[in-house]
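Inverse folding, one chain.
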């Protein structure tokens, strides 16, 4: 993180970053746009190219089959060629050679479209996203005798994620040495940033100590600094036999202060354990110690 510890364009998940002076060339990176874009975009572009080339080659064949007396307009000649059966061209004549060239080019273009389309389809099917659920909010509250930042993750698939690793980064605006606002990134160490086996739910905990970048922060101060928490997860999905990645960003309004997550793990009457994902995103407020209602002592 030392090389990108401070920058003026890092983050800004809420407002985004305007790109100035960088020329985008969609056609130069068309494969990436089609492979990573939506299915509707791919089908639309492929249909336009397919039917467009079909129409062009059809017009070329009609033009070669049409008779062109002097003074004949283009559209009537093409319509007449479409209605009447094409007259066979003499071997080795100019029309015969032109028709063969058009047919050869048409065959090559059809083969090229099939190969490119198959490659893009395989690329899209091979891009299997990670099925990791992040809690809609993160909580800041008492934990293990201190204070901590907590958020939840869950593996939506039935396969296990091996050697899972989670990292959290706080990105916010800070005053620089020259008086200008600088965007800085701070790593937030977790109490357990890795798991040998990620099967169901996982609650990540960042203890807020004096050394923590979140020490002394409030919802108002984080909002004023345009802060964001960037969470990344990676691991090896044993079902897919490949490394998967997932990412989530928490903004200041996504944090719940003086709260905790509701319990989702319970023990069934037979002794089995169950995970209730209906409460995965639910939190409960924690009353400050001075505001808790005192309980009447039992007689």
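Residues assigned per position:
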């Amino acid at each position: 993180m030392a090389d990108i510890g401070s920058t003026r364009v890092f983050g800004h998940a809420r407002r985004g970053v305007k790109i100035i002076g960088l020329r985008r060339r969609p056609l130069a990176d068309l494969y990436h746009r089609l492979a990573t874009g939506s299915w509707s975009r791919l089908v639309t572009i492929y249909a336009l190219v397919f039917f467009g080339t079909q129409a062009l080659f059809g017009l070329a064949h009609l033009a070669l089959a049409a008779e062109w007396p002097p003074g004949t307009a283009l559209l009537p000649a093409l319509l007449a060629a479409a209605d009447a059966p094409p007259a066979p061209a003499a071997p080795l004549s100019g029309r015969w050679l032109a028709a063969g060239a058009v047919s050869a080019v048409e065959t090559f273009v059809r083969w090229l479209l099939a190969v490119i389309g198959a490659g893009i389809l395989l690329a899209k099917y091979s891009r299997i996203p990670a099925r990791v659920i992040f809690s809609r909010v993160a909580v800041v509250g008492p934990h293990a005798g201190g204070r901590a930042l907590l958020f939840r993750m869950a593996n939506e698939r039935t396969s296990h994620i091996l050697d899972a690793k989670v990292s959290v980064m706080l990105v916010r605006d800070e005053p620089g040495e020259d008086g200008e606002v600088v965007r800085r990134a701070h790593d937030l160490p977790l109490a357990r940033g890795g798991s040998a086996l990620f099967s169901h739910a996982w609650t990540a905990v960042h203890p807020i100590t004096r050394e923590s970048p979140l020490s002394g922060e409030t919802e108002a101060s984080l909002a004023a600094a345009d802060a964001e928490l960037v969470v990344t997860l990676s691991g090896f999905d044993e079902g897919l036999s490949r490394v998967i990645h997932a990412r989530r960003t928490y903004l200041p309004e996504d944090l719940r202060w003086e709260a905790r997550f509701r319990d989702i793990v319970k023990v069934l009457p037979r002794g089995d354990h169950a995970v209730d994902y209906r409460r995965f995103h639910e939190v409960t407020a924690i009353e400050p110690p001075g505001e808790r209602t005192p309980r009447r002592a039992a007689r």
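The longest strand covers residues 161-175. Confidence is low (pLDDT under 50) at residues 292-299.
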